[in-house]
Amino acid sequence: MAEPVERPSIDPPGGPGGSLAGRLGVRGGLNNWQFTAVSAVAGLALAAGAVLAAGPWDSGQRKAEQDWAAARARTGGAHHVPGDPSGPAPAPSAPAVLAALGTTVQDAPAGATPDLRAVLDPLLKNDALGDRRAAVVIDTATGRRLYGKGADAPMTPASTVKIATTVAALSALGPDHRIPTTVRASADLRTVTLVGGGDPTLDKAALRTLAAGTARALKAGKVTSVRLRYDTSGYTGPSHHPIGPNENIAPMSALMLNEGRQDDSSSGPAPRSEDPAGDAARTFAALLDDAGITTGADPAAGRAAKTSRTVATHLSAPLSGLVERALTNSDNDIAEALARQTAVAAGEPADFDGGRRAVTAQLKKLRLPLTGVNIADGSGLNRKDKVTAALLAGLLARAADPGHPELRPVLTGLPVAGFSGTLSGRYTTKAGGTGFIRAKTGTLTGVNSLAGTVVDTRGRLLAFAFLASGTTAPSEAQAALDKLATALAAGER
C-alpha cells in the first residue's frame, strides 16, 4: 500500500496511485538519505491533513482500531515500472525536508557511539509491556547495533513475523515476480480448466478478463459449449491455518476470489468461504456464460490434461506490490500465500510446513541471526512462531542495505505513523513520531510488538524492534510501544 498523498490508497494494484517513494522518483532502491526524505515528506503530508484508514487486523486487535476500518478501500501496490518517464523528480534531501518541518538536523560526530540506554531503559520498564520485553535498535547506515535488551530472547512476534515472510519471498522470487492464474483448454476445446497459481488477490474483474480471452479462443475454434473444471493442485497439505476457521484468514487454496471473503470488504475480518476455489470457479462459469460460452453443469475439481494448452492468463500485481499490501494492512492471506510462493521457488511442498522451511532457508542465506527462531507460519497467527528482536531489526537493516535493492518494498510497505494501515489510528495526537515512524504492528492476546524504521533528529534511519509478552491491556501496551519509537525519533537526551 502507498503512503497517503492525495489518497492513493483506493487505487487497485498497479493503478494510478502507487507508493510515495514511487511518485517521488525513488526507484530500484532507496539509499539512506532518500528513504529519510520519503519518511519526512510523509510528515508534511500529515500537516496538510491527509488521512488514511485501512487494514486487516491481527487476531485480538483492539476494537477501537477495528472501528478505523469502517471506511475500507482496496489497497493497491506501488508502481514498479522501470524507467517510467512520467514519474516526478527525485526526493529532496533529508536535511531540507527536516528543516521544513522545524526539526534540527545535526551531523553525527565522527566515531560517536549513541547511548540510548538513558532514553529507552526507563520506557521499557513500563508495566503495560507485560512480564517479558525485548528491544534492539540498529543504525542502518553502518549496521551497528545502538541498543539491545533481551535481543536474542525468542518471543512470540504476532504479525511482525510478516517482515520475515516478505523478506524471504522477495529474496527468493524478486520484486517483479507475478503470480499467474491461467485457463487451459483440451485439444478438442471441449474441456476448459481454470488453474489457480496461488494469487489471493484475484478479483471478479480479473476473472472477467480471463473469461473474455477464453471465449475468444473457443469461438475461434467454433466451440460455444464446454465442460468447466478447476485445478487447485498448486497447493498441498491442510487448507486451514492451525488456528482453525477464522474471520482473519481464509482456507488456503491455490484458487480463490478476493481472499475468500463472503462480503464486499477488501480488508479486515470478514466471513470466509469454506470452498474458495469452488466459488471462484462458479463465478468464472457465470462470466463465461456472459461471454457466450455455455458450461452446463457446475464446475468440477480436476487437473488440466497434459495435452491442454493455455488460452488465457492473468498475472497478479508484482510481488513488490503484494508485499507492500501485506505489510501495510497486515494481510494474513497474502502473507501465507507469499510463504507458499517461497516454498514453490525452493522446490518445497506448497503447504504450511514447506513455507516454514523455505522462509527459514532464505533467512539463513541472508546470514541473519536464527538461534532460537521458529518460523511456524507466514502470517504470525500461530503462537508457535518465535523470533528475536535481533532478527526483526536485522531484517529491516538488511532491507535498507544498498546491496539488497530487491528488499526495498519491505521498507516502503511499512505503515506510516498516523497515516496508513495498522498505524493509521495511532500517533494521531501530539506524538513526535507522526510521519517519521514506519512500523509493522503485531497483536495477539497477551502479545504486542512493533518493528520498523524511524528517522531521528540527525537524519539517520534507524531500524528497531520492540517485543512484549504477558500484556493484559492492549491499548496501553501499544501506547508504551509507540512511546519507545517516538523516543528514537526525538534522539538522545
Automatic annotation (TrEMBL):
Q: Does the keyword Nucleotide-binding apply?
A: no
Q: Which GO terms describe its molecular function?
A: serine-type D-Ala-D-Ala carboxypeptidase activity
In terms of superkingdom, the source organism counts as: Bacteria
The alphabetized UniProt keywords are: Carboxypeptidase, Hydrolase, Protease
What are the EC numbers? 3.4.16.4
The answer to whether UniProt assigns keyword Hydrolase to this entry is yes
Give the top-level enzyme category. Answer: hydrolase
Low complexity bias locations: 69-84
Q: Where is this region: Disordered?
A: 1-21, 57-91, 259-279
Against PANTHER family, the record matches this protein to: D-ALANYL-D-ALANINE CARBOXYPEPTIDASE, PENICILLIN-SENSITIVE CARBOXYPEPTIDASE A
Q: Which family does it belong to?
A: Belongs to the peptidase S13 family.
Record's protein name: D-alanyl-D-alanine carboxypeptidase/D-alanyl-D-alanine-endopeptidase
Task: List the lineage, top down.
Answer: Bacteria, Bacillati, Actinomycetota, Actinomycetes, Kitasatosporales
